[in-house]
Specification:
With about 450 residues, the protein is α/β, with parallel strands linked by helices. It has 3 domains: about 1-45 and about 215-275 and about 415-454, FAD/NAD(P)-binding domain, CATH 3.50.50; about 45-65 and about 75-85 and about 205-210 and about 290-385, Polyamine Oxidase, Chain A, domain 2 (Alpha-Beta Complex), CATH 3.90.660.10; about 105-200, Orthogonal Bundle (Guanine Nucleotide Dissociation Inhibitor, domain 1). Helices cover about 35% and strands about 25% of the residues. Strand 4 and strand 5 (about 50-55) form a beta hairpin. The longest helix has 22 residues, at about 430-454. It is globular and about 65 Å long. It starts with a strand and ends with a helix.
């Protein structure tokens, strides 16, 4: 086993950990980044499957994500706009297929009015409560002790409207059933994107992609760090005191002054802490979990839906695939669709054989875009729930009542141990942007502390 000494040890070579390491080195501190996988990127991963380049993990850039946008500019990475010309498709609960333009689903007049009213309520709550400290608001406990599902039905008697509004938070973001998380958690999700209206607007939240793939963000930062990034080095034990830390990983141990846990909270328990973490940390981590989603990639000889005047965008809260988008790569002659199967629907299809699951998912895609969608040249399912060093997607959220109870302490350091990931972000929560913001902010705090000591 090799032994190293560094000022700061970072656990996890995703966008947050690498952003932290990059900033710390700029501040003149030495770092070691320990990554369990054989690659960098964390929950971003651009891979070639059967000859097709696919974004297995996080990929989109929205206009408000200035932390990520600034980093892309620094790294010399360019973006391109997601294709969204033409009509979208809405599948009603009864299966009726409607083509439409604009942001609002083509439902009944009453359902549309209710969706608009609910959006206004959620926008007002997001503006009042904000993303920085939602747990500190006077309404925090009240909103955190009722599920988003039941709250929506207190606000409206229109089931279709409730399901459609729920889709944007439950299936689209937290990837948990709306009965499994609170209104406060939903409001945090909306506030982190600027408003609930921004989450509803797929043209905003899913605006651009990185040419060549989002994983390049991590790859370029890792290249700058060179030998300070160690792969295939899962951390097993962190021995700490107030002034120092010893991190033991497979094949290497590193002594330092600070350590950054730049992994999702559900993985904290994979590490043995000596002495153990405080009681509150143990309790908090048990109330944070990742959701479940299958990100489906289907590649075709051409983007055939465009010839039919369709954008490739589709929504159907009752469908197996609740969302679908044109995900064609930059200047690629082939067409790629990406669809999402979330929470309980993912449970359902995972109970099927791989062949049955593929057939069911492709049938759902065909319901949106026609029979050609059932016959892709390349088909792939991103299943982060089975990935050893992630175990879910997209990011962690609290169970019912957990956010107001523990949120104030989720970023509080324990001795030399700091916490940094998109799961803990305010702005950019659950996105690459949040990971970058958290990494940079954590680095700034540590650099200030260590400079004072020096």
């Amino acid at each position: 086993m090799s032994t190293l000494t560094r000022d700061v040890i970072i656990v996890g070579a995703g966008p947050s950990g690498l952003s932290a390491a990059r900033q710390l080195k700029k501040a003149g501190l030495s770092v070691a980044v320990l990554e369990a996988r054989d690659r960098v990127g964390g929950r971003t991963w651009t891979n070639t499957i059967d000859g097709a380049v696919l974004e297995i993990g996080g990929q989109w850039v929205s206009p408000d994500q200035t932390g990520l946008i600034g980093l892309l500019e620094e790294l010399g990475l360019d973006t391109f706009s997601r294709y969204r010309e033409g009509e979208s498709v809405y599948l009603a609960p009864d299966g009726k297929r409607t083509r439409y333009t604009g942001e609002m689903f083509p439902a009944s007049e009453h359902t549309v009015a209710e969706m608009e009213r609910l959006t206004v309520i959620l926008d007002e709550l997001a503006a009042q409560i904000g993303a920085e400290e939602p747990w500190a608001h006077p309404l925090a406990r009240e909103l955190d002790t009722i599920s988003f599902h039941h709250w929506l039905r207190q606000q409206s008697d229109d089931e279709e409207a409730c399901n459609n509004i729920g889709l944007f938070i439950a299936g689209g973001m937290l990837t948990k059933p709306a009965h499994a998380f609170s209104v406060l958690q939903a409001v945090l999700m909306a506030a982190s994107a600027g408003s609930f209206s921004n989450l509803v607007d797929d043209g905003f939240i899913l605006d651009k992609r990185v040419i060549g793939g989002m994983q390049q963000v991590s790859e370029k930062m890792a290249a700058e760090l060179g030998d300070d990034v160690l792969l295939n080095a899962p951390v097993r034990t962190i021995r700490w005191s107030e002034d120092s830390v010893l991190v033991e990983a497979d094949g290497v141990s590193v002594t330092g002054r600070k350590v950054v846990m730049a992994v999702p909270p559900n993985l904290y328990s994979r590490v043995s802490f000596d002495p153990p973490l405080p009681r509150r940390q143990h309790q908090m981590h048990q109330h944070q979990s990742l959701g479940l989603v299958i990100k489906v990639h289907a590649v075709y000889k051409t983007p055939f839906w465009r010839e039919d005047g369709l954008s490739g965008t589709g929504f159907g809260a009752a469908e197996i695939v609740q969302e679908v988008y044109d995900n064609t790569n930059y200047q690629d002659a082939r067409g790629t669709l990406v669809g999402f199967v979330s929470d309980e629907k993912a449970d359902m299809v995972f109970a099927l054989s791989a062949q049955e699951r593929k057939a069911a998912i492709l049938e759902s895609l065909a319901s949106y875009l026609g029979p050609q969608a059932a016959n892709p040249e390349v088909y792939y399912e991103s299943d982060w729930g089975s990935e050893e060093w992630t175990r879910g997607a997209y990011a962690a959220s609290y169970d019912l009542g957990g956010l107001h109870r523990y949120g104030a302490d989720q970023r509080t350091p324990v001795g030399p141990i700091h916490w940094s990931s998109s799961d803990l972000a305010a702005e950019g929560y659950q996105h690459v942007d949040g990971a970058v913001r958290m990494g940079q902010a954590t680095a700034a705090v540590i650099a200030a502390k260590l400079k004072v000591r020096n």
